[in-house]
Specification:
By secondary structure, the protein is an alpha/beta fold. It has 12 helices and 13 strands.
């Protein structure tokens, strides 16, 4: 197949590109490198089945030409993280909503065969039910979650009105090599691995008993490919590991001292996907056990040598807007 991956130089995108190339597909990447890194795919330099296009997805005319002849579109390009979305909601709306509109329109005009939207489990907010089903209430708590949900609504609307063959995957707590190392306070693995390298305590939020549905990135790439190959359209699927694991368990596996910092408002005590729908309809389930995934992260720890080193003091400063706007 001829495939196109927006955000292909990013964390999840780079693993998906690898997977598609292994299966013999041609891959066009569209990325403006806001959060992606060319180094993520440097080992594929010279591969004749990959083409890189450095454009902003919001520029419909600039990207449209690259959709001609494409079979599958994987839309992963987006701005992530909670705090920056609170501080600059305009940038998040432009990227995650306007950008998604442009990608959908380019795909529609090119009459592509399958469109895969990358949704976020953050749309559930603090759910009433665990594991959480796709039919549970949407409760977005901050602009990142809202803009990803609005992008999903656009994608499903294009499926309904224009018959664009869309599947949306709601990803739960994806982790693995190449997860972001930007200066933004965000994903727990990036924070902890930089602290491990520096031999500093892990900054555990609250009492550490909160659990997360940590899902390994190659399992996520597998879900995207299975969804693309299916005949199903117009559906939303949770993508989770099949379990939920405490932060205390994570630091136990990473080994080292712990320092506890204040619990944050608007964060769920648990994320846990009900994956029965994707198992029954697509035959997908996660394969990488949590303990094995953490081991693989430690083996690739050098990737985080240039990541920012977070301390309780710098975290407090970086998350001040989180407490300001999300506290009841």
């Amino acid at each position: 197949m001829k495939t196109l991956v927006t955000g292909g130089f990013g964390f999840i995108g780079s693993h998906l590109v690898e997977r598609l190339l292994r299966e013999g597909h041609h891959v066009t990447i569209i990325d403006n490198l806001t959060s992606g890194r060319v180094d993520n795919l440097k080992h594929l330099e010279g591969n004749q089945n990959i083409k890189a296009v450095f454009e902003d997805i919001r520029d419909l005319e600039a990207i449209s030409t690259h959709f001609k002849g494409i079979d599958w579109v994987f839309h992963l390009a987006a701005l992530a993280d909670i705090v920056p979305s609170i501080q600059t909601p305009d940038k998040y709306f432009a990227s995650n909503v306007d950008g998604t509109f442009s990608v959908l329109e380019a795909a529609r005009r090119a009459n592509i065969k399958k469109f895969l939207y990358t949704a976020s489990s953050s749309c559930y907010g603090i759910p009433d039910n665990y594991p959480t089903k796709e039919t549970d209430e949407i409760r977005t708590k901050y602009p990142y979650a809202l803009t990803k949900r609005l992008g999903e609504e656009l994608a499903m609307h294009w499926a309904d009105v224009y018959k664009l063959p869309v599947i949306s995957l709601r990803l739960f707590n994806v982790y693995g090599p190449r997860s972001r190392t930007s200066g933004t306070y965000g994903a727990v693995f990036g924070v902890f691995l930089a602290q491990k390298l520096a031999q500093k305590p892990y900054t555990v939020v609250g009492d550490g008993k909160q659990t997360r549905d940590f899902t390994y990135v190659t399992d996520v790439a597998d879900a995207f490919v299975k969804a693309a190959k299916s005949e199903i359209t117009g559906e939303i699927f949770n993508v989770g590991s099949g379990g939920t694991y405490s932060i205390n368990r994570l630091v136990e596996l990473l080994e080292g001292p712990v320092e506890y910092i204040p619990k944050r408002p608007g964060e769920p005590d648990c994320t846990f996907a009900d994956t029965s729908k994707i198992k029954s309809m697509l035959g997908w389930s996660a394969r990488v056990p949590f303990e094995e995934g953490v081991k693989l992260m430690i083996e690739n720890i050098d990737y985080w040598r240039e990541a920012p080193l977070w301390t309780p003091e710098t975290i407090k400063e970086a998350t001040s807007d989180w407490f300001k706007y999300l506290s009841k």
